[in-house]
Amino acid sequence: MWMMRIAAALFALLFAVCSFARGPLAPGEITVAQLPAEGQAMLAQIRKGGPFAHRQDGTVFGNREGLLPQQRHGYYHEYTVTTPGARDRGARRIISAGVPPVDFFYTDDHYRSFKRIRE
């Protein structure tokens, strides 16, 4: 029993240290919890591999704006974050980085700015 208590205490300490090390958000970051509900749902869909509602979801994002770190063509993929009341795909997207994804970015202004999603 005492070993379980020690293990639980070590786990709690490790969690606290890791949480502290992450620190406050840097400029240009957003947490998953800060994403709109539709963004959180899309992030979960991306992790599952779909299915996706729009044929453009999962297509290569070219980063023509040059706002994301420079990478080879095919590194970034875009996904629609549904905008309630919009008649089209709206302006909100999640961009995945890497295959499989190692990072995610969110835009709510159709690629004019991006925030790195911190998990």
What key phrases describe this protein's structure?
119 residues, alpha+beta, 28% helix, six-stranded mixed beta sheet, 6 strands
In short:
With 119 residues, the chain is an alpha+beta fold.
- What value does the average pLDDT take? 85
Low-confidence stretches: 1-21
Inertia-based shape: globular
- Describe the sheet with the most strands: 6 strands, mixed
Amino- and carboxy-terminal Cα gap: 33 Å
Layout of secondary structure:
Layout: H1 2-22, E1 29-31, H2 37-48, E2 59-60, E3 76-80, E4 93-97, E5 103-107, E6 115-118
Parallel strand pairs: 1-6
Antiparallel strand pairs: 2-3, 3-4, 4-5, 5-6
What does the model show?
- Strands 1-6-5-4-3-2 form a six-stranded mixed beta sheet, with helices on one face.
- Helices cover 28% and strands 20% of the residues.
- By secondary structure, the chain is of the alpha+beta class.
- It has one domain: Roll (Nuclear Transport Factor 2, Chain: A).
